[in-house]
Amino acid sequence: MIFAATISRMSLLLLLVMSLFVISSETSNSILQFNECSEGSEGQMLQHYRQNGQLPDPLWKSILYADGVRDSLAIAGFGHSLDKLFEKLDRKIKAKHDARKKSQTIFKFLHKDVLKRYSESVRFRDLFLKNEYNCLTSTILFTIAADRYDIPYALKLTPTHIYIVSDPHGENVIVEMTDPKKGFDFVPRQKEYIQYLLDYKLITEQELQEAGPEAIYNEHIQGSVTVDRMALLAAEYNNIAISYLDELDYENALCYIKKALVFDDGHETYRYSYYLTLDVFLRQDLNAYSNYLDELEQGLFIAAADTVVAAGFWEYARYVFNDLVVRRQDFDQGLDLLNRLKLRIGSQAFYQPRIVDTERIILENRLAAKYRLGHYEEAFQFAGELYRAYPEIRIYKDRYVDVGLQYAQKYVREGQIDSLYTVMDSMLVECSEYAILRTQYVAMIWNSVIPSLQIGNDLKTTAGHLEKAYSIDNKNVQVRQALTHVYHELAMSQVRRQRLRTARRYVMKGLGLDPGNVTLKQDLNLIDDAILVERQSK
Q1: What share of the chain is helix, strand, coil (3-state, %, to 5)?
Q2: Which one, 8, 271, 417, 515, has the greatest CB density within 10 A?
Q3: Distance of alpha carbon 358 from alpha carbon 312, whole angstroms
């Protein structure tokens, strides 16, 4: 059968990635996508399986759909050939025959009437056209006959071979369909069995030398597992995948090996083939990653249980993110891709820290890019997101403060002092331990009010700004002196308007800051005398 030679045919691929991949026995319930290479009857068959957990009858039609047979006449022709075959068998099999007798009759008849030549590479659809067979196609045909004649059986699968056991709970007759002479009631003696594997190219001489006869024998006899009918379809899909690999058509090979995994997710060989094929597919042109993102996502999902493999595929994801984020500066697409991965694989323990690190790297690069371009408002927003997401990383809070100061300076230059307050007040609340915030905040307010101090207009607003600065740093001598001067000017303006009590309040504010201020004391005496005269005149 074709998958019997999978290992030897893929030896070059194995050399490429053997150091990277270690296959685990764990499996995952893979949610695969292959609509791009499944349509019509095959797509309906796959949909039926997903909805019902079983194949639609009859089995042979599903196998033909897997083979790519779409033409209704071809399908009808195959069905007609089956009908003719069973017409002949019906005359040979009697109701009184036991399972052993029925199985022996079917075995002899098929090899005489249908199975003429063994061929390693043959499709089920060619059984009646070429009369060629391998272990898979002949076993499928025997299974169809066994179903028709109510013969109990068990399908046995090894990594490179499939055979059938008739009456597994009774006489337990091993039926090796690839051996027309000794295959019925097959007795697997080690030496003869290994020679049989070699004769039918189920193993190679190189594999025998590398593994040794004991290991080969154990793998194919003791190592066989019982599978259901879906495994037949999975094996056929795997055969098709291998044929595409022979043609170096990795995209179609991937599609068909994924179909094999749908029907036999636990088969190590299929998973192994999938990992290897995906690796070669991804290596073809890393810069064309937009064409393989879906495949990469599925690969990451399927490999989640196999941590060494998952680590290898994650390197491809890292390359994509590096190209998108660092080289192209396309942060939106980088985050979109990351969010897709979160939905698909984010719950897998292996990927969680890697996704977190990737998100952090994207945010870092986005922040740096906005800062370099002078887009301080966006940079400040991103810096806040970064430090709040990773409060344990001190440097992010430092960066938040640095970017925030640059952002606030922008408002100083634009004369938007209220916006300056909004930015700086929020940082003071979150980052009160940074002394530089108070120092720079006061300096920014000072630079904002210098024009008003020099011109002497809008003193009330100027006083408000200086009061704000003084509340931030009451030890700043420059601010205190400027504020007492403004209080003096405000008091005198109120005196000129005969608003003596308002003037006195400004003076008292100033003296509260600087009790020994001579000018303010003189202002107070002047205002108090004026208030006394005003009272006496009444």
Answers
A1: 70, 5, 25
A2: 271
A3: 16
Give the three-class secondary structure for 121.
coil
Contacts of 290 (CB under 8 A, 6+ apart): none
- DSSP conformational letter for 21: -
Tokens describing residue 262: 């749908």
Nearest to 25 by CA among 331, 188, 328, 268: 268
* Torsion angle (degrees, nearest 10) of CA 7, 39, 139, 181: -70
d(CA 482, CA 463): 9
Q: Strand 132-133 vs strand 117-118: parallel, antiparallel, or unpaired?
A: parallel
Tell me, what DSSP letter sits at residue 133? Answer: E
C-alpha distances (whole Å) from 283 to each of 301, 316, 479 are 19, 9, 66
- Summary count for the chain: helices (H), strands (E): 26, 6
Q: Which of 401, 407, 409 is nearest to 430 (CA)?
A: 401
- In the block, tokens 């685990």 appear at 24
Handedness of CA 105, 106, 108, 112 (dihedral sign): positive
Cβ atoms 315, 351 nearer than 8 A? no
Q: How distant, in Å, are the alpha carbons of 169, 277, 500 from that of 524?
A: 115, 92, 10
The beta-carbon contacts of 33-37 under 8 Å, at least 24 apart in sequence, are: 33/294, 33/298, 34/255, 34/258, 34/259, 36/255, 37/252, 37/255, 37/256
pLDDT of residue 210: 83
State the pLDDT confidence band at 26, using cuts at 50, 70 and 90. very low
Give just the sign of the alpha carbon dihedral 211, 213, 215, 218: positive
Helix ranges restricted to H, 69-130: 72-92, 99-113, 127-130
What does the chain come to in residues? 538
Place of tokens 């594997």: 197
Q: What is the pTM of this model?
A: 0.68
CA distance 482 to 464: 12
Q: How far apart are CA 259 and CA 48, in angstroms?
A: 14
